[in-house]
Recover the amino acids of this structure.
């Protein structure tokens, strides 16, 4: 209960009410002390009236008047004459004198605190103004212990009353918080849990009904989020079903095309000039169709496993890629070079990094081959304070504007005619698995450059 929102409100309310009472405790005690001493002065003045009515009083009666007033003697100044009205033996020396006529609030609070915490009894002198303008001043002597005991009793009653008020206030605030905040929040949590159990069930979508502005805004935001998520889940389910169907079609189509590819081998040996002239085009078309089917099946398989990160020498990875691609070079003046420093190492999965670099280099080589002109494909690398960077650049014609807009989108970012665009999409996904990013650095008439950025720290891009 204490860890709940309403429980903490309860504790805070009690604490703040008690703090407020502590802040007013000193002024209250000072006021009580002043009223107590003023009352003693008034009682002493009333006792002295008996002497004014009768100049001679019996000793017993005078003692009784002083005991009723709670003082040892009474001095009254009238007409500039200081007169001892009532007196009795004082048990000791006067320890402190207090003048109530011109005492400031700070002095009253200081004297009250000192008296409150002083346990020893002492005789004190109190000076004040008589009531009803019965003289210039009145002065009494008295014990301090009755004053201190009265102050302690008054302080205890104040603290007890404050505790009762704080408990009652906290209880009603507890009920109010539960009704206004906790119950609506719990309702939102119930909706979230119900929706999490069955996100496809629209009955789990919250209906905003809170009267509190902030809670209603939260409910409306949650409702919008749930609707968007439900729609996304439905779309994902449909795409999954469509993907399964496409995978089956691609699998069967690949088998059919493979058989057709075998027949084209025989067609190429035909003596018919027209057949011999059309056969290469047919072979290329079937080869592209088979490649598309294989790429689609690869993309539709289970997600890539998490990369096994280790320190990899980037020069060796680039050298393997360059060596493989050089074997695929036909006749022409295309050059593939490895410019990665031999000492440069990075934290990565060597197999997945090889696939990414291979895809970029192969795309660059094929782009250059399509132009039929000489060109250069270079793999380089360097490091910054935050990243390891691998760059693959070429001197080709650059990427078309349409290809740049959907460069890393499956089936939309293809650059070559007949390409599926899956290569760059898969490469970008592999680099993201490393916490990095695959970005197009530059593309224009002078060539294209891609960057693979692998973070050194734990941050992701």
């Amino acid at each position: 209960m204490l860890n709940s929102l309403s429980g903490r409100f309860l504790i805070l309310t009690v604490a703040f009410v008690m703090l407020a009472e502590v802040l007013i405790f000193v002024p209250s005690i000072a006021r009580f002390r002043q009223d107590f001493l003023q009352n003693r002065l008034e009682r002493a003045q009333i006792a002295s009236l008996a002497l004014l009515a009768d100049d001679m009083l019996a000793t017993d009666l005078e003692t009784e008047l002083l005991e009723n007033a709670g003082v040892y003697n009474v001095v009254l100044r009238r007409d500039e004459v200081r007169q001892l009205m009532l007196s009795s033996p004082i048990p000791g020396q006067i320890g402190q004198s207090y003048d109530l006529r011109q005492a400031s609030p700070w002095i009253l609070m200081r004297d009250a605190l000192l008296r409150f915490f002083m346990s020893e009894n002492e005789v004190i002198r109190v000076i004040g103004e008589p009531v009803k303008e019965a003289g210039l001043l009145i002065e009494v002597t008295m014990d301090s212990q009755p004053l201190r005991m009265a102050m302690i009793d008054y302080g205890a009653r104040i603290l007890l009353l404050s505790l009762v008020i704080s408990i009652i206030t906290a209880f009603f605030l507890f009920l109010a918080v539960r009704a206004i905040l906790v119950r609506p929040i719990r309702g939102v949590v119930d909706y979230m849990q119900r929706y999490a159990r069955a996100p496809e069930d629209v009955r789990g979508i919250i209906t905003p009904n809170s009267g509190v502005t902030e809670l209603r805004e939260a409910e409306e935001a949650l409702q919008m989020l749930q609707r968007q998520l439900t729609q996304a889940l439905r779309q994902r389910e449909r795409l999954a079903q469509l993907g399964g169907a496409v995978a089956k079609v691609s699998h069967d189509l690949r088998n059919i095309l493979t058989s057709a590819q075998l027949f084209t081998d025989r067609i190429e040996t035909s003596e018919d000039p027209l057949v011999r002239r059309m056969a290469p085009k047919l072979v290329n078309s079937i080869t592209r169709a088979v490649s598309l089917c294989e790429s689609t099946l690869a993309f539709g398989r289970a997600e890539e496993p998490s990369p096994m990160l280790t320190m990899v020498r980037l020069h060796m990875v680039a050298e393997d890629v360059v060596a493989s691609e050089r074997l695929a070079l036909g006749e022409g003046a295309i050059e593939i070079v490895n410019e990665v420093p031999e000492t440069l190492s990075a934290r990565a999965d060597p197999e997945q990094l090889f696939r990414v670099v291979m895809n970029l280099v192969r795309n660059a080589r094929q782009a250059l081959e399509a132009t039929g002109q000489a060109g250069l494909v270079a793999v380089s690398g360097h490091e910054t304070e935050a990243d390891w960077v691998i760059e693959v650049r070429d001197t080709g014609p650059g990427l078309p504007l349409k290809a740049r807009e959907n460069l890393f989108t499956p089936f939309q970012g293809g650059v070559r005619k007949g390409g599926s665009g899956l290569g760059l999409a898969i490469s970008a996904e592999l680099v993201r698995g490393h916490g990095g990013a695959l970005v197009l650095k530059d593309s224009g008439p002078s060539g294209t450059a891609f960057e693979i950025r692998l973070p050194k720290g734990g941050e992701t891009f």
